[in-house]
Design a protein that fits this description.
By secondary structure, the protein is α+β, with helices and mostly antiparallel strands. It has a single domain, classed as YbaK/aminoacyl-tRNA synthetase-associated domain (YbaK protein, Alpha-Beta Complex). A hairpin with a 6-residue loop joins β7 and β8. The protein is globular. InterPro entries: YbaK/aa-tRNA-synt-asso_dom_sf, YbaK/aa-tRNA-synth-assoc-dom. This is YbaK/EbsC family protein.
Length: 184
């Protein structure tokens, strides 16, 4: 079975490329701890015009769809309160916003956060949102299938470039919670 590293000629530890990442992602890598050594978090340079999953897998290989993950920001609302969270699911699935997310956040209503909110709150770029470096206190909901993926390709915080890391590393991030059925 191929790994995401096989699709790219140049991959290197992300800690060697901090200047290519957004400040929140670089800070998260500097403060990294957990069961996966930070050197196993890799950076690959990708064309920003190929950041969207469908275009990326068309260009780099259709088999990547099974090993790529998307991270989206959601907003749960109850009363006058809004809770922001991030969801990481495999790219061939979609986030169960109205089921799993709404229940987990205890929200009356859940939806994808407006783009300006998501980008403004995360300090990341459209097409590059990643679970690394999110604001403290945010729930980071990780589909169990993502955590079970040996290596997953996900955003780097910028539209240009991606990170490759063991799926279990995402489950060990601050605020991370494994959720069965988050990706449907």
């Amino acid at each position: 079975m191929s790994t995401p590293m096989d699709a790219f000629d140049d991959h290197r530890p992300a800690v060697e490329c901090l200047d290519l990442l957004t400040a929140p992602v670089a800070d998260a890598l500097r403060a990294w701890h957990g069961p996966v050594p930070v050197e196993q978090v890799l950076y690959v340079d990708t064309d920003p015009d190929k950041a969207d999953t469908a275009v990326l897998v068309e260009h780099y290989g259709s088999w990547l769809v099974e090993q790529s993950a998307n991270c989206v920001v959601v907003a749960g609302k109850r009363g006058g309160e809004v809770t922001l969270a991030a969801c990481a699911v495999l790219s061939h699935t979609r986030v169960d916003v109205n089921g799993a997310v709404r229940r987990r956040l205890g929200a009356r209503k859940a939806s994808f956060a407006p783009m300006d909110t998501a980008l403004g709150e995360t300090g990341m770029e459209f097409g590059g949102v990643t679970p690394l470096g999110l604001p403290a206190g945010w729930p980071v909901l990780v589909d169990a299938a993502v955590a079970d993926t040996p290596y997953v390709l996900i955003g780097s915080g910028r539209r240009r470039g991606k990170l490759i890391l063991p799926g279990k590393a995402l489950a060990a991030l601050p605020g991370a919670e494994l959720l069965e059925g988050l990706g449907v």
